Structure formats: C-alpha cells, structure tokens
TrEMBL record:
<protein>
    <submittedName>
        <fullName>Actin-related protein 5</fullName>
    </submittedName>
</protein>
<keyword id="KW-0539">Nucleus</keyword>
<feature type="coiled-coil region">
    <location>
        <begin position="174"/>
        <end position="208"/>
    </location>
</feature>
<keyword id="KW-0804">Transcription</keyword>
<dbReference type="InterPro" id="IPR004000">
    <property type="entry name" value="Actin"/>
</dbReference>
<keyword id="KW-0175">Coiled coil</keyword>
<dbReference type="InterPro" id="IPR043129">
    <property type="entry name" value="ATPase_NBD"/>
</dbReference>
<dbReference type="GO" id="GO:0005634">
    <property type="term" value="C:nucleus"/>
</dbReference>
<keyword id="KW-0805">Transcription regulation</keyword>
<dbReference type="Pfam" id="PF00022">
    <property type="entry name" value="Actin"/>
</dbReference>
Amino acid sequence: AGPQVGNALGSLEPLRWMLRSPFDRNVPVNLELQELLLDYSFQHLGVSSQGCVDHPIVLTEAVCNPLYSRQMMSELLFECYGIPKVAYGIDSLFSFYHNKPKNLISSGLIISSGYQCTHILPILEGSLCFPFHNFQNYFSEELQKWQCPDYYENNVHKMQLPFSSKLLGSTLSSEEKQERRQQQLRRLQELNARRREEKLQLDQERLDRLLYVQELLEDGQMDQFHKALVELNMDSPEELQSYIQKLSSAVEQAKQKILHAEVTLEVDVVDSKPETPDLEQLEPSLEDVESIHDFEPLFSEETPEAEKPVTTVQPVFNLAAYHQLFVGTERIRAPEIIFQPSLIGEEQAGIAETLQYILDR
C-alpha cells in the first residue's frame, strides 16, 4: 500500500509500533522520511509544476537548529525539488511578531510548547542591540582607557571563585606540627629505604647472572661462556671478573646502608625524649658566666628593652580577594577576534575584510 502520512492513517493503535518520524526533538535527522513527508505535502497542496516545485518555501525549524541539519534540508529542497529560494525561521517568533499589537514595544516572553521539548524565548525591544550588548567603535582607544586604574576599578567584572577559609598552618598547634614533621621524615626514610631495596634487588640479580657466567668458564663450557659474554657486551674473562668485583662491593655497601638505616630508625623511635644535661657539668659554665658579668657590666642578666621580643600585630588578609577572577579587557578582546584573528595568532582575514573582498568582486 506504500507509506501512509497524516490523515491517511486509519486506526492508529495497531500501527503505533510501526510509526517512524524524521525528527529527533524537532531536529530532522532522517531525510528519507522527510522526503516522503514533502511529497505528501506538495501533492495535497496541489502543486502542479512538472519536475520541480516552482514556489518559494518558508520552512520553520527548531531553536538553535544545527547547521548541518539545515544544510542537508537545503540540499534536499534545491536538488530534489528545484525550489527557487527558501527561508528558515522559528514559528513561535513568527507568531509573536504577527499577533502583537503594532503600537506596543516588541518585548515579551515566548513559551513554545511542543510534543518533545519546550523553548522559552525572551524578546527585549525586538533586537539584541544596545543596551543589552556593548559595541565599540574604536577598539584601540577603548583599550587605552583600561590603563587608567580608576577606569579599571569601575568597569572590571569580579567573579568570586570557591575557596577554603581554613588555614592549615594556623589551626595546628606546635605539638601537631612537630608530629607532622616526624611523620613526613619517617615517610621519607621509608621511601628511601624502599628505593635502596629495589636497587639492591636489581644489583643482586645482575650479580647472580655474572656469577652464573663465571661458573660456565670454570666448568669448561666455552661455547656457552663466549655466547653469554656477547649477550653481556663483554670482551674477555678479565672484564667479567672486574664487573663481578665492582658489583659485589656495591651490593655489600647497599646491604650495610640498609642495615644502618634500620638501626637508626629504631633508635629514633625508641629514644625520642631529649637528653637532660647533667647538673654537675652545668656548674662550671655558670661560674664562667658570673665571672664575665664581673668584668663586663654590659652582660647583664636583665634583657634590654630593645632585645625583648616585640609582639607584632598580624595583618588580617581577605582570602576571598585572592580567589577572584577579573574580567576586564577580555570583554572587548574576545569579540574582536572575529574581526582581527591575528590577536590569537591566526593568519587569516577577519569578517570585515572577508565581506569587503566579497563585495569588491
């Protein structure tokens, strides 16, 4: 029977599972089905021209319709139907401008409800021009204004970024700081010990390999011995013996370092209390200090006022000010890129130069 469209469908319920649509959320994606819909529409509209549709077409589309979808639709209309021209628009905007009173300003809020999605479109005085957008006639002169500190402070946009108001250093006590330093030191010692063990393991494996090759020489297996020397990139048994001696010494030294590090770590953990000086050893030093005071009156027991620690008032910093994003000249530099692509290093003409080139031709 062929495809059935619109009112040609009889009972809908038995055919619901077979229904196909060329649209996905109001965007045409299946052009084969779209062509069937256009054939059905032109036939029922009574278009009688032969081989083409000799009528201008006004076609509505979804808001922010992808350029690729519009391109494929234009290709279908021009190549398959031979239409003279086509215009695209949004049906809700057409309805707004047609139904609004002529003596009112073109401002309003459009709510366009559909079967699959709903669009809310604000219209402000009928256009997107000033005062809702900034337009700069002289780009270089506008940049010069931003060099003035007062102009910068009055026009810069500050955006507050999220941050944590807690300072780690100020919330920790001296004991907690000391404990953290000890943990970091212990972690560093463990990391160094692990690296030494890994290096020792690699050196031990290489030493075992060299000793195995030396055993081949002692057993008289010369063919396998010379083959192993070639694999090790060595020329003679003397060179092999020299490598064995050096590697054995390095392995022994690494073992001693690991053992010494373990002993040092145990001592640091067990004996963590500071040593208290012997009182008998302090008495001679105190007598020397008293004798110095007798000969030099400047060495007094009282601390002068100049040497006393001065309690300074710590300034209060506004942490929020250090987590802000300032948008100043970027507001006029970013739109200027389409007119001067050289601002971002693109070697191509801007939109004004391109339009001038097209008009000249």
